[in-house]
Amino acid sequence: MFRSAMKGAGAKTRRRLLGLALVGVATSTLVAPLATARPTDPDPREKIKQKNISIFVSSLIDKRHMAKLGVGDDISQRALEMYFKTLDPMKLYFYQSDIDQFAPESTKIDDYIKAGDVTLAKKIFDLFLTRVAERTAVAQKLVDAPHDFTVDESMERDPEKMSWFKTKEEADERWRKRVKYDLLLQTTDKETPADQTLDRLHKRYRAIDKRWDQTSNDELLEMFLTAVTMSFDPHSSYMSPENLENFAIQMRLELDGIGASLESKYGETVVRHIVPGGAADKDGRLKVDDVITGVAQGPEGEMIDITDMKLNDVVMKIRGKPGSVVRLEVKKAGGAELANYDITRARIELKDSEARSAVVERGPKGEVVKAEEGSSLKVADDPNAATGNVIEQKSADGTVFRIGVINLPSFYMDMEGRRSGREDYKSAVRDVRRLLEELKQQKVDMIVMDLRFNGGGSLPESVEMTGLFIDQGPVVQVKGPDGRVIPHDDDKPGAVWEGPLMVVINKFSASASEIFAGAIQDYGRGIVVGDKATHGKGTVQELEELGRYVNQFAPPNYGALKMTIQQFYRPGGDSTQNRGVVSDVELPSQTTHWPVGESDLDYALKFDSVLPRPHENYPNASPKTLDELRSRSTARVEKSKDFDKVKKQIARYLERKDEPLTLNKEKFIAERDELNTEKEQEEMFDDLAAGDKPVFPQNFYNDELIAIALDYLELLGDGRLAAR
């Protein structure tokens, strides 16, 4: 069992965004069996396994979920709707007659899963596969059909405003517009050669059909049971055995393999990132944008063609024990020739998920004088760990201030390592503590904790992390289904850092990040700067491995139930649920306005509050100080051409976000050049996935953060220690 303040799956437009932001598919780790392609009628042994998993999930969530709804007819109706939405979120495949066909089942799902009967999932999915094959066949014909891009027509983008198809003609028309839009994207993309446009789209639609056709029984069960659990709240889900292992990898930041991240693109397996120091990096031949076309095991194993193979299956073929050899057939980026690489697998640390550090010095006008990534901070080349950065800045009166920046992508913790008593288990708190000690040695005047895009992680880590900055006291309160409120305190006297503190957040800062930021704010220990508010996830999940209900001493891998069992509250009593942590100083940002927050999710729990807990009050964030910081920042932002551009983009986005997409080429290009939110989102998450990104790059936004930090130091004056 593991309790966490983890980020859960989203809904609507947020599904893709947070999937990219928080989850990377790494081609390296433990050996695991390949899932059987396409759901089949389970054999007797698998049927018993599915039955047990279904019963365990329904029983646990019925008794212990925070919402106390129970698995009944209301949940059953939600679950059927959620399952259809999971399969077809954009309403591109199902007909209204399909929905009507299964409507009588809407009050029976609760009875089915309590009895361990999941056959309904396959009945619906089999029909879905038929519809996908029909629609993708139509799409292939439409790719080669003539399209008039001068016609002034549009395509609805919001599925909530659409209805399911009533006729084949209606389905064909919606897909005509969908294909036309995809053609527009390809033909106006300067990076796509004109002769590859049609070929790429044919590959894309073929890959859609193939991908769904390769769904395994485990994946189908995961989708169906998660539709049930997400009918309680958006963060409860069933994890298949394979995804449970992937989750453990993400938390311990350690795996076995070649050290490369892959993505499926137009039906091909493309290298997205090479992990620094990993086996592929040391070998030196595999490069970003190379296409892997075949995989073989050992020096003599048969080369298996992986064209159109599901990405997870490719990943599992490449993973393996350290010291073993995997052979890859590779088509080099931008070429047609094939090469064969034999790479010896190794233990890989996911450095790009840890805290990192760097040293940057700037002159009196903000110009970069010297930039030394990881000057003396030992995890400087750790892109996924906490990162530290020292910025030397001169204030207006010539005083030199040194500002230490720590970037923390998640509150990671190796659960297995901690349970087994490993002395060197991976921990965000350990890494940040080490960075703070090293930054103190460099005599920094202030610490900036950068939690932008930090989606959460371990609840205990967030409590201990807060303890690095306060003396003692409550960090978070948790309330369970029984209404009892239990405080989680930092009980270790003394703080590692007692100087000025600034916490940087955005709308993607969630869960454990919000526990930390909320506690710092309630204590008056520092200031919170960034988007209007954090994500708004104020719930705690428990990860229950289901195999232990079969055999407690040698549990089989039955996957796990991630279930919301508590709601957390700040020391001052307010929940962060739906509301988030509101910034003390807000900076203009498009992410503030994107529909990616907790309040945008289906069945999110409501905001509430509990009684405040007695805690220390530091004088580091008085109302007078905050008012002055806002006033000074607003004055600079008003004069900034860069922020003026951002504000105009925000206004345009808000004006156009609910409008249909134009399919007129001239208007499309004009609107794309003016406001290309989707492209910005893709670039943002590509930057996040890059392992060589700077800790704290110099740009107008970060420059304003440093200006706020200098204002803060000036306003604190000599009273910079965290006196209580």
From TrEMBL:
PDZ domain: from which residue to which, for each copy? Answer: 248-325
List UniProt keywords, sorted A-Z. Answer: Hydrolase, Protease, Serine protease, Signal
**Which residues belong to the signal peptide in this entry?**
1-37
InterPro entries per the UniProt record, alphabetical: ClpP/crotonase-like_dom_sf, PDZ, PDZ_sf, Peptidase_S41A, Tail-specific_protease, Tail_Prtase_C, TAT_signal, TSP_N
Gene Ontology cellular component list = outer membrane-bounded periplasmic space
Q: According to its UniProt record, which protein family does this protein belong to?
A: Belongs to the peptidase S41A family.
Q: What is this protein called?
A: PDZ domain-containing protein
Query: What organism is the protein native to?
Result: Lacipirellula parvula
